[in-house]
Structures are given as C-alpha cells and as structure tokens.
Design goal:
Length: 214
C-alpha cells in the first residue's frame, strides 16, 4: 500500500492518512485526552452508546466496535477513521491490523492513581478489591505496559507520543502544544487546554477521594 511504501522510505503519512489513537490503561486519562483532541478540531470516532456517569461525568468517548478487536471482529470502520481520533485501551493495541498507519497518543498515569480510580468505580458497583489485589494488579499492569511499549516500538506503522496524565492536568497548555505538534500542528491549542478541568483530578497519588479524571 502507498502509506507503507512512504513509511519505509522515511516519510510517514500525515494525520489525514492515519488513524489517530488515544490509548492507555483504563482510568488513565484517555477520555480527557480525547476531549482535548476533539476540542482542538479532530473528529472523534464514537457511537455514544456508553453514556457519561459519575465515574466519567464528561463522557467516555468510546466506540463499541473497538471492543471486538481481539475477537477477529469487523475492522472496516478503520477505513473511515483516517484523519479522526478513536479511543482504544492499551490491551487491544496489539490487535490493530497492519493495513493502516496509526498515530498513537499514549497516556501514562501513576499506577497507584489508576488503581485507586478503578477501585472507586468498583465500589460504586458493589465490587471489592483490597491491598493484596492492588499489589498484584500493579505488577500485572507494569509488565503489560512494558510489553506494549516494546511492541509499539517494533511496529513500523505506529508513531507514538507518550503523555503524562498529571502533566495534562497541571500543564494543559504545554501538553496541548506537544500533542498538536505530533498531530501535524493544525489543532487549536487554546481550545484543547481549555477543556481540562483540574477539579476532576480527584485520585492523586497518596490521596483517597472520588474518581479520577479519565
């Protein structure tokens, strides 16, 4: 395909010929980054099936079809996702077909904060966890993230920008500038940074309150 020829020639495709992906662990800040990129002017690939709730008061920005990536599901929707942004959790990135070029904005967040946010969500649903479960999950997540980083580095059809969740909340303008530069420089940085609400950053490392900005 043309984009692969250009990629191997050292000229990766632009946003208009790429699928922009926001990824990370669940509860790591992916919805916030989706909001930023959408506000900046890039169209989202969403279906509105999952509605906003107490855990994500500004919405999840999801597409149900994404959940079938690991089930050999229909990926025809990717053909219409060039020049748009879609949220895909880190566990599913390995199942993205090689027939597209991807510009991935990967959100990193303190595992302590991720686990605290996940536990708050479980508490609302009547589930339980505990320190032992958290310790084991932290090990699993850390190993998973290392594996994903290696896999992405080895895929020639993937460009990756790693973004720190805390920086996005505390320095949204700086992060917006980085994301904008990565995505070609045509987004509205002021609008991107303007959608970040630090009041939704409620699970900071060392704290025990509310759900986290996702």
């Amino acid at each position: 395909m043309e984009f692969l020829r250009r990629l191997f020639a050292g000229d990766p495709p632009g946003v208009d010929k790429s699928v922009v992906v926001v990824s990370g662990l669940p509860r790591s800040g992916t919805s916030m980054l989706m909001s930023m990129i959408s506000a900046g002017g890039l169209e989202e690939v969403v279906d509105g099936v999952r509605q906003a709730d107490d855990d994500n008061p500004r919405g999840y920005h999801e597409l149900e079809a994404v959940k079938d990536l690991d089930k050999n599901g229909d990926t025809a929707w990717l053909d219409d996702a060039h020049g748009k942004v879609v949220k895909i959790i880190s566990f599913l990135l390995q199942h993205l077909p090689a027939t597209h070029h991807y510009k991935i904005v990967f959100v990193r967040r303190s595992l302590q904060e991720v686990l605290a946010s996940q536990q708050k969500m479980l508490d609302r649903r009547g589930a339980s966890g505990g320190d032992a479960a958290d310790a084991e999950m932290a090990r699993v997540f850390a190993a998973h993230l290392s594996k994903v980083e290696r896999q992405l580095a080895a895929r020639k059809n993937c460009e990756v920008l790693y973004v720190e969740h805390r920086a996005a909340v505390t320095q949204p303008a700086a992060v917006a500038e980085r994301v904008n530069a990565f995505l070609g420089g045509s987004l509205d940085v002021e609008k991107m940074s303007g959608v970040v609400d630090s009041q939704l950053y409620r699970n900071r490392a060392g704290q025990d309150a509310g759900s986290g900005a996702t």
